[in-house]
Structures are given as C-alpha cells and as structure tokens.
Structure to design on (851 residues):
C-alpha cells in the first residue's frame, strides 16, 4: 500500500517536473559560461577573453577582426568594420583605415568615421563629455601604441602611433565600436547604455538579468550576410562551478558548457556529449627569473628544467585536455622558427646538464615557484604543478610551491621578480595568451617591458632579441614580419628563457544537438553558423 | 522587560560598529589587489596604480573606512567596481533570493530538527532514538558542498526529476510560488537545511533528556499530571537552548549558502559574495558582507529577546 502511494507520488513528481520545463523555441542555444557574472555589454567587456567571446564579438564588431571560420589554421586578421588599412608611405607612424559603408547599429543609426572617433574619445580623452573610465581600463593595454586619431572623411580614419609600429593592426580587434546615437538617446549616460547597448554585431541584446543570464537575438540586418545568425536565440548563463556546468549539460538545462574538468570527460562522452578542442593561442609556462643570484642565469639549468618535464604524461593526466608545448607557439605557427633546442622529455640529459652546472645528489638544486589555485587560463594549476614537482624531483631539483590565490599571483607577476615580496621566488607559473606577435613573444623579452612597466617578469636581456624587436616594429611587410617574429622566437627557445609546458585546448562540452560549430584556433567563437536540432 | 529590551538594543550598536570595522579591514587584509581583477590580464603595474588612485584606494585606511561608513550609514554602499551597478541594488535583489532559500531551509530545519529532537529525547535509547541519531550524525558530518553536488548528480542528472540549478525556468522573470519555481527550490533547500536540522535536533534531544532527568518532572509525574501536560513543561524548559541554537544555525545557514548557492547557481547573497571574491569587487564584497553581518547581529538580538520572553531567568542575569 505504502509502496503504491510512494510510486504514485514519484510518478506525479516526475510528470510535474517535465511539465514545468517550458517548451523551448527551436534554435535556442543555451551556454554555460565559467564566469560568475555577465561581462559588461557596453563594448568594453571585462573578465578577460571569455568576456570578449560572449559579450564582445557577439554584440559588437571591431574594425579588424579574426577569421573564425576555419579550424585547421590559426585565426588570422580579417576586415570587419574596416575594409582596408595601410601605413602612410611618407610617415610610417600613420595608419589609414578605410571604413565599411552601409553598416547600421542595432538602433538604426549609421556607422561612420564619427562613430569611430567618438569611441576613441570615449576611451582616451578624459575631458571628452562621453569619456568612460571603464572603457579606458579595458582597452588601454590593447591599444598601447596609439597616440592620436583623425577623421579624414566620413569613411576614412587616420591613426597615429607613438613610434613606427608595424604590429598596430593586431591591436585593433579589441577596439569595439558602440553606437553614439544610442548613447545620446539614453541621455548621455553610460550606465544606462550598459543596460540597453547598441552595436553593429550579429547579435542584439534582448534582456540582461545581472548574475543570471544574458539573452541575445539575431541581428537579421547584419551587414555580413554570410554571418547572419541561424539560431533564434542565444542565452548565456554564468555558472562558475564546474560540476554545476556539467550537471546543467547532462540534465539538458544547457546545450554548451565551457571548460569541463578532465575528470568529467568520460561521463560526458558516455552520455553522448561531444568534447570539442583545438589548439588555441595560449601557453602554460614557467617564467624564470634571470636576475643575479637566480640559478636560471645559467642556460644549462634552464634547459635541464625544460628537459625534465614529461609533457605527454601530464596531458594523459589531464585526459587529453592539453597539448605539449615546444615554445610560446606551436611548431605549425609561422612564428615558431627553427630552434635547435628541442623542448622534450629527456631526464638523462637534464641530469647531465645539472651536473655540469654543479648540482648533484649531494647538492640538489632548490627553487621556489609562485603558483595559483585557479584562474583564467591557469587550467588545473595544483594538479599540474604537483605532477611537474615530481618530474623535477626525479632529476634532482627540489621545487617548493608557494600557492597564491589568482589575484594575488597576478599581483606578484606585475611587480616583477626583482620586487621585495618576490624574494626567493625564481619561477612564476602564469599562463599567457599568444594571440599576436606582441603578446606571444615580444612583451616578455624587451627591456622596456621589464616589470613593473610591462610583462618581462624575470628581466630577460639579450642583445640579439632586442635588435630584432626594434627591427620588427619598422617592418611593414607581413611576411617579413612573420620571419622576424620567428627569429626572435627561435632565439628565445634556444636560450631556454622560459620553461614551456603545455598549450590549452579551449575545451567545451557540446550537446549532440548543436550543428555547425567550428572550433577555431582562437579564444573566440563565431556563433553565426551554429544551429540546434530539435 | 522593557529595560532589558532597551539595554539589549543599545548593546547591538557598538557590536554593529565593530562589525563594520572588521568587515572593512578583512577585505583589506586579504592578499591580492582589489584593482587587479578589474583590469585585463595583460595590464601593467603602472595601470593598476593609476586605477587605484582613481578609486581612492591609495588613501589611508582609516580615511577610506570613514568615508565608506559615512556613505553606508545613509544607505549608499557605493558602486560595484566590476559591473558599475549600485551595490545596494545588487545586494537587495540577492537578499530577496537568499530570503526565499533561507526561509524554506529554515522552516525545514527548525520543524524537522524540533520534531526529531523531541522524539529522540522522549524515547531515549529506543530504536527511534538510534535512527534519529544516525540521521543527525550524518547531517552534521556531511559538508554542504558535497551534499549539494550529490543531490544534483542523483536527482537532476541521473533521475532527471528536479532541475539542477537556477531560481526558476528560463525567462521566468522573478520568483513565484508555483511548481516550476518550487521544483528549483527543493534541492538547495535540502542541502542548506541538512546541517542546521541535525544540530537543532541534537541540541534539543540533549536538552529534553536533561530536563526529563530533573526532579521537578518526577514531582509533576508524582502529582499525577497527564502525559501531555508533562510534555508541555519539558518542551517549555528545553526551548530556550533550542531557540539559541536555531538562531545561530540560521546565521550559519547564511555562511553555508555561499557554497550551496554557488553549486546551484542560486542568485542570492552567497553567490554574490563568491563572485565578488573572485572578481575582487571591493565595494560589492564589503556591501554584501555588511548586510549579511548586520542581519546576523539583528538575528541574535531577536533570539535574545525571544529567549528572554520564554525564559524570565535570562532577564535577571
């Protein structure tokens, strides 16, 4: 009797639960982001590349964007709101950018040179009425060499850089264009704009519920007819907890979950989910201090650490969610070059090099590494560092791990190895984006980047690299530019200035209902070709 | 009684001010730069310093505290560094969601804890006591976080009976007391209520057992009082301890909600606090902590007053 009542109750509960799930319109894609809040949707998304992935290139367009339509090659620059750009042959600090005509913002107003100038003033002119500190904060570092700007005509803009900078076009993808007309319509108030924004992108904002969801609708009038979204709706949900994202996908609450953890891969695939990965521009290295007193002033020690790490073993531990690194970028990249030092697992050679450098069983090498517990791009830092710690122990290196919370580690990175608080720390485990030549290679090796000014944490100095770095800024032929980057990278690997460990693979778990997803070799995604099977 | 109430309220004032100071300084003691999270990953130390000046974080600690306290006193908790939205609005909308979860979990914890405690105490050392003991030991031993994940795996993923996360179905537009929303509330309620329920039950059992052993109960029984009347005396005497524990447990529930709300992506104060910590959103963190701790102070005040109403001995001490 009781059992019967029980089973009836259960059945009733199930029916009610199913009836409660609303019938979704066909073609709604629900994405579980790893973020704790919806990124800013005002054209200057915060929260790193994931913020740009979901709230940047969806709602807005930059002047120059990335080609995200292919998965077999690294995503290169391609025209977006700019149709063409070139350096002024008479003055190589000036870039002439031609703008696309006939583009409209979501509010119906026209995109033109005034809109570009408005957004530049918004970011960098503190006395401009529409100056927006939040925009400046997010943008400044990406437009580092920009000095001034000028409207030539309605569809031509001139940018002036502080010094000749052939890499300037690589800085433009983060500069997204917001609608001046919408800003004016909302009473010149950026806070209001942040709730009801307007861009030119393939998606329009329908609803934003802070910390709960962002709903986007396709922009059917999108200027690039090949990229008009196929979906009816795109819903973005902030779900920072990885097990909650996995549960949401498995129970059908979302169709797409970012960054599944390695231990859930088996469960997800056995439930029919697809784990999508590709080499993305990212490296998970050890940055070394080359200051006086650091053991890493000796190239033999630097090479020994590189040779002591079993990268394939590490990838196996991560259930395939990483690829071994042989440099800042993958060997297929045009920037890789032809280094003679092969970054691989060779513990015998590592022991030999250490012995030559004066270390051995009676005098082990002791080092201290600053690592984080988690963080954007940091992958699974505790697990991975403990694995490497074991690898190093086998060749006679005792690596002590000093664990920081992510923001605290970022602080330790910014102040540089020479700062008092970093005394005794000669290894920094901070992952990097390798999107373009500057962030992939240049910023870690030049003297003007020595912390706290920039990203050269360990004060790496090398005359040859410094000479090439100057040369590259004046080389405006893209092919020759790539060759120069490759030369620098080759030199960097041969000097073993860092310890290269793995590249992330931008993993995401997808429901089998998702069609048309292209996993570009990029941090970003084009949602336009994606559809959902009912 | 009135004098006691006034005295107790006056005590709450310095406690409240002390709490604001601790809230403010704790956030400053924590390692990591509050400004750093605001800036892109590639930002330099120079940019961090500039932003710190912009947000007034380069000023002396006590000056910052005074300004913040002055603003907080008039209800202005500042603006979230991350989202640019007013902290007060963010916290209030989160408080509403936490209130729903806390009420539901509080009711479950108090009612179940009360019943289990009384039953176990009255039938001490009988099978029913052992069963309750097993339930309550499991309850206090199981971490919120683990229980929450387990509930999701079993009831949302494997059985697919209940939704795994969120406050309601997609595009629900706010909480309503219908099944679609209540179904979202069940798992978080169980996860949040488990520990307080067990603690309340165990405390109440101990106090019931203690009261039952006292001479006056023997006297009551000897006088020939009916069982129900004796029971009433037992409960009345065991209640003050239980009430104090209930109050504290409701407070603890707010702490536990950080984990439970994160697992269930329940947009309440716990979730807000967790995201403020990850984003190092200083004003948001301080604002949320302030509201929560003030609520805790208020809760203790209420518990004290209710206790003194049920047990006159407290007023005299």
């Amino acid at each position: 009797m009781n059992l019967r009542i029980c089973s009836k109750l259960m059945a009733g509960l199930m029916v009610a639960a199913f009836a409660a799930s609303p019938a979704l319109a066909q073609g709604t894609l629900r994405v579980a982001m790893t973020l704790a809040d919806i990124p800013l949707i005002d054209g200057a998304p915060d929260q790193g590349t994931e913020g740009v992935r979901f709230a940047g290139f969806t709602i807005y367009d930059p002047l120059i964007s990335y080609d995200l339509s292919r998965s077999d090659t690294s995503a290169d620059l391609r025209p977006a709101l700019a149709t063409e750009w070139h350096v002024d042959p008479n003055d190589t600090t000036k870039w002439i950018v031609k703008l696309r005509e006939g583009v409209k913002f979501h509010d119906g107003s026209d995109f033109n040179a005034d809109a570009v100038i408005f957004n530049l003033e918004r970011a960098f002119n503190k006395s401009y009425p529409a100056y927006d500190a939040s925009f400046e904060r997010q943008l400044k570092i990406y437009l580092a060499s920009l000095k001034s700007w000028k409207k030539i005509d309605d569809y031509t803009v001139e940018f002036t850089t502080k010094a000749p900078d052939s890499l300037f076009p690589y800085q433009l993808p983060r500069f997204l264009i917001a609608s001046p007309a919408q800003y004016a319509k909302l009473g010149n108030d950026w806070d209001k704009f942040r709730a009801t924004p307007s861009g030119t992108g393939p998606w329009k904002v329908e609803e934003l519920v802070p910390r709960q969801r962002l709903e986007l609708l396709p922009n059917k009038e999108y200027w690039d007819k090949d990229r008009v979204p196929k979906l009816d709706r795109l819903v973005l949900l902030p779900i920072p907890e990885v097990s909650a994202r996995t549960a949401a996908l498995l129970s059908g609450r979302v169709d797409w979950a970012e960054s599944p953890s390695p231990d859930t891969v088996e469960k997800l695939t056995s439930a029919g989910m697809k784990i999508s990965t590709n080499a993305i521009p990212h490296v998970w290295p050890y940055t070394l201090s080359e200051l006086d007193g650091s053991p890493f002033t000796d190239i033999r020690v630097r090479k020994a650490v590189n040779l002591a790490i079993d990268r394939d073993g590490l990838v196996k531990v991560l259930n395939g969610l990483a690829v071994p690194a042989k440099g800042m970028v993958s060997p297929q990249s045009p920037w890789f070059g032809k280094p003679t030092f092969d970054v691989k697992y060779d513990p015998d050679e590592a022991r030999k090099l250490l012995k030559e450098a004066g270390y051995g069983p009676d005098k082990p090498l002791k080092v201290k590494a600053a690592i984080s517990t988690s963080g954007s791009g940091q992958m699974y830092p505790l697990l991975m560092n403990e694995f490497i710690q074991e690898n190093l122990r086998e060749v006679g290196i005792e690596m002590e791990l000093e664990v920081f919370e992510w923001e605290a580690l970022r602080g330790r990175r910014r102040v540089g190895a020479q700062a008092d608080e970093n005394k005794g720390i000669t290894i920094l485990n901070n992952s990097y984006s390798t999107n373009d030549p500057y962030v992939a290679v240049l910023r870690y090796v030049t003297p003007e980047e020595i912390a706290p000014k920039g990203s050269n944490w360990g004060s790496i100095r090398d005359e040859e690299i410094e000479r090439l770095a100057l040369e590259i800024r004046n080389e405006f032929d893209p092919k020759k530019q790539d060759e120069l980057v490759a030369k620098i990278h080759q030199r960097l690997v041969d000097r073993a200035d860092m310890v290269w460990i793995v590249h992330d693979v931008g993993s995401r778990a997808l429901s089998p209902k998702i069609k048309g997803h292209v996993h570009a070799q990029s941090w970003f995604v084009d949602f336009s070709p994606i559809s959902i099977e009912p | 009684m009135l004098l006691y109430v006034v005295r107790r309220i006056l005590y709450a004032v310095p406690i409240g001010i002390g709490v604001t100071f601790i809230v403010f300084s704790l956030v400053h003691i924590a390692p990591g730069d509050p400004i750093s999270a605001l800036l892109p990953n590639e930002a330099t130390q120079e940019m961090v310093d500039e932003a710190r000046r912009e947000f007034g974080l380069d000023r002396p600690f006590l000056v910052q505290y005074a300004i913040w306290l002055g603003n907080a006193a008039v209800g202005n908790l500042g603006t979230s560094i991350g989202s640019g939205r007013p902290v007060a609005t963010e916290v209030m909308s989160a408080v509403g969601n936490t209130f729903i979860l806390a009420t539901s979990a509080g009711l479950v914890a108090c009612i179940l804890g009360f019943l289990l405690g009384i039953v176990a105490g009255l039938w001490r050392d009988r099978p029913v006591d052992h069963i309750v003991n097993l339930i309550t030991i499991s309850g206090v031993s199981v971490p919120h976080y683990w229980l929450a994940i387990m509930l999701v795996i079993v009831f949302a993923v494997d059985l697919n009976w209940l939704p795994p996360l969120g406050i309601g179905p997609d595009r629900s537009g706010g909480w309503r007391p219908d099944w679609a929303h209540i179904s979202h509330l069940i798992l978080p309620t169980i996860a949040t209520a488990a520990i307080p329920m067990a603690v309340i039950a165990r405390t109440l059992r101990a106090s019931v057992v203690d009261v039952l052993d006292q001479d006056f109960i023997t006297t009551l029984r000897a006088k020939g009082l009916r069982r129900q009347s004796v029971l009433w005396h037992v409960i009345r005497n065991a209640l003050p301890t239980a009430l104090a524990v209930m109050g504290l447990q409701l407070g603890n529930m707010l702490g536990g909600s950080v984990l439970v709300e994160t697992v269930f992506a329940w947009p309440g104060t716990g979730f807000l606090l967790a995201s403020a910590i990850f984003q190092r959103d200083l004003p948001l963190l301080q604002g949320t902590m302030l509201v929560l701790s003030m609520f805790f102070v208020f809760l203790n005040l209420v518990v004290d007053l209710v206790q003194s109403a049920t047990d006159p001995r407290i007023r005299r001490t």
In short: The CA atoms of residues 84 and 98 of chain A lie 5 Å apart. The radius of gyration of chain A is 25 Å. Residues 1-25 of chain A have pLDDT under 50 and may be disordered.
